[in-house]
Amino acid sequence: MSRRIVSSGGSGDTPRNGEARRPRSISSSGALDSVRSGASDAPGVSDAPGSAPSSAPSADFRGVSGVSPDASGSGTGEAVAEAAGGGADTPRGMLPDDILVSSRSHQGFVDARSLDPDASVPERLDAPGDGGAGGMLLRPKVVSYPQRRKERTMAMAHRITRRVAVLMLVAVLVVTGGWVLFFSPVFRYDPAQTQLSGLNQWVDQDAVSRIISTDSGSSLFLVHSEKIRAELDDLVGVSDVTVRRTFPHGLTVSLTSAEPAAVLHVTSDDTLVPVTADGERLQTQSAPGAYNGIPRIDVSSADAATNDAAIAEAIKVMGGFTDTLSPRVTSTTAATRDSVTSTIDDGVTVLWGDSEDIDFKVSVVEKILALKDAGDASYASITNINVSSADSPIIK
Q: Which of 15, 46, 116, 365 is 20 to 30 Å from 128 at the Cα level?
């Protein structure tokens, strides 16, 4: 039966392309005879008893652990038997008759069965028969898996703690910001601090105050500025409304208030009702002289401004009067919608016709009255001016 010498797989024994190197075998009879005789060369593979010596390369057995030639040139026998005999400590994958060769040994071959099974890893690495010095370079890094799991658990706990802290901070900032913006007194709306411009006595001021005070006490961010603008624009005599927030507590409201185009003199109860050029009723005034300089028209009822087409046309005509002409008009009548007539303070009667081209008609009448007032002999005695056809005025 032949024995095998198995390499331990050092760096010089590593096969190319990752292929496993097959163990090299030599015949046990040739090897042992060579050891006993102290010869330096061993027979080749499968040298059976009685056969001719093989021409294969010789093997050096001087590095076999525990095997050394004695004085007579033969081995001790005991070490060889120990190396060849096998036993319970035989490495895995190694037959009992195999001899282990260590590539790290400085002496050549190391029998793994001769190693101390109780030696620690550092002791084995530093052993002279198993690598000698340089153990620090060969010593593997020892990893403590329980310690590693503990470190990973602590790292994960730290990450979770940081994330929870960030989320809590964001939540606190959001809640605090929301409270400051929408519920705290920092931006509380106070109607008393609202700046209002463009309002006159002809617009219902109580209605304006009520609309502006709708969201009193709320956050300025929650004030419905568009709703306020729409409600103000719906008031009679109000147009071109703008509403904007003025931080931290008020609004700035700018509007255009209409002036009365005429005053309806209701003959049935002797009351005065100011109306716009569209016939909308404005806020009545109780102060004396509040209607001075505003042209008047006699009507049977205040509803005539919208129900009577002739009165509605007369109001449009008076709406075209300038600030110079209006104070001089003492009365206006309208039998039909195209026969609107006014009386001037010096007794001159003006026939306007309808409200078409009223601005041009007013400028013609003002020019004629200016010539009459200047003492022009051609206009000194006029009593009637007909501008129903503005391009061809008639003077009598």
A: 15
DSSP for residue 160 = H
DSSP letter string, 113-129: GGS-TT--HHHHHH-GG
Domain boundaries 189-257, corresponding CATH code: 3.10.20.310
Give the orientation angle of helix 205-212 with respect to helix 225-233, to 10 degrees: 170
* CA distances from residue 238 to 205, 277, 306, 358 in whole angstroms, order as listed: 11, 13, 19, 24
Q: Do domains 189-257 and 262-395 have the same CATH topology?
A: no
**d(Cα 43, Cα 206) in Å, to the nearest integer?**
128
Residues 263, 202: Cα–Cα separation, whole Å: 12
Main-chain phi, psi angles of 221, to 5 degrees? -75, -20
**What is the DSSP secondary-structure string of 55-89?**
-SPP---TTSTT--B-TTS-B-SHHHHHHHH--TT
CATH of span 262-395: 3.40.50
Domain edges within the chain = 4-138, 145-183, 189-257, 262-395
Q: 271-275 and 262-266 as β-strands: parallel, antiparallel, unpaired?
A: antiparallel
Q: What is the pLDDT of residue 93?
A: 55
Query: Residue 286 and residue 289: Cα distance in Å, rounded?
Result: 9
Rounded to the nearest 5°, which phi and psi values hold at 374?
-80, -5
| pTM as predicted | 0.55
The predicted structure's pLDDT at residue 302: 82
The greatest distance separating any two alpha carbons of the chain, rounded to the nearest whole angstrom, comes to 175
